Amino acid sequence: MNLQNILSEIEKVDGDALARIEHMSRRSIFQSLLKKTVAGAGAAAFAGVLNQTYAQNSSVADVLNYALTLEYLEAEFYNMSLATPGLIPSAARAYYQQIANHENAHVALLKSALGSAAVPKPTFDFTAGGMFGTVFSSTETNYALAQAFEDTGVRAYKGQATALMSAPAILTVALQIHSVEARHAARIRFLRGQNGWISKSEASGLPAAIYAGEDNVIQGGVNLSVAFPQYPGGNRITEAFDEPLTMSQVLAIAGPFIKSLNR
């Protein structure tokens, strides 16, 4: 991958945006969007602020900062998990270390591409206000949260692919990260004794929002449950396709884990 190409793509699509948004930096805009979502303002407020500040072809920096926020979260989670004595069994430690290496590399790349427009790392609460209170004392809880982050990350990257079509160099990098996140998700699911793929919208004890829409059996306008009646219940059909999540859906999922936004 060529970092200069990435920077050129960002400059190309953001040149007019800087004039339109006057005194607001790309970083402050994204922080405003994230803050509203974390505070529970919802998709309407999120979309409203976005439409007021950026034209349709000027969203690449927003998408990269969105991805960076998720990568910050994942990298911090794995770094903290590995640093907690006795938490990750020796059989899984090598996997956690490699995933941590990947997530830290993703953070470094996205920060380099965004430069001064990169949002700073938020402060995280991996207990989500107590929902996962044993995240750093119970291996099973830790595995469950790792699955939540990885399965969400896969769908998050997929959901932003069309927003990056105007910047093919960046889209290529995003797809390279997306496929690696899918490998992470499969490995973590195996650690939990699960299949590497998602069946319908089964949440396995995790927040249902992470798997919302995964029970979809219509692809490309074709109802595959009708086309393949030999697969009753649709499990094999839904396992063959991952569904995207919108930015507002993903930030709503991630919101409980974000304690504060740093400026």
Describe the protein's architecture and organization.
With 263 residues, this protein is mainly alpha-helical. The protein folds into two domains: 3-198 and 246-260, Up-down Bundle (Ferritin); 200-241, no CATH class. 59% of the residues lie in helices and 3% in strands. The chain has helices spanning 3-20, 26-38, 42-53, 60-83, 90-114, 139-159, 168-191, 224-227, 235-239, 247-254; strands at residues 123-124, 218-219, 222-223, 258-260. A hairpin with a 2-residue loop joins strand 2 (218-219) and strand 3. Helix 2 (26-38) runs antiparallel to helix 3 (42-53). The relative contact order is 0.15. Residues 13-24 and 40-58 have low confidence and may be disordered.
- Assign the CATH architecture of the largest domain: Up-down Bundle
Helix content: 55-70%
Distance between the termini: 30 Å
Low-confidence blocks of residues = 13-24, 40-58
User: How are strands sequenced across the largest beta sheet?
Assistant: 1-4
Number of helices: 10
E-strand count:
4
Class derived from helix and strand content? mainly alpha
* Main sheet: strands, sense, barrel: 2 strands, antiparallel
What is the count of distinct domains?
A: 2
- Shape descriptor reads globular
CATH superfamily of the largest domain: Ferritin, core subunit, four-helix bundle
Mean pLDDT: 81
According to CATH, what is the topology of the largest domain? Ferritin
Topology record:
Layout lengths: L2 H18 L5 H13 L3 H12 L6 H24 L6 H25 L8 E2 L14 H21 L8 H24 L26 E2 L2 E2 H4 L7 H5 L7 H8 L3 E3 L3
Antiparallel strand pairs: 1-4, 2-3
Helix pairs in contact: 1-5, 2-3, 2-4, 4-5, 4-6, 5-7, 6-7, 6-10
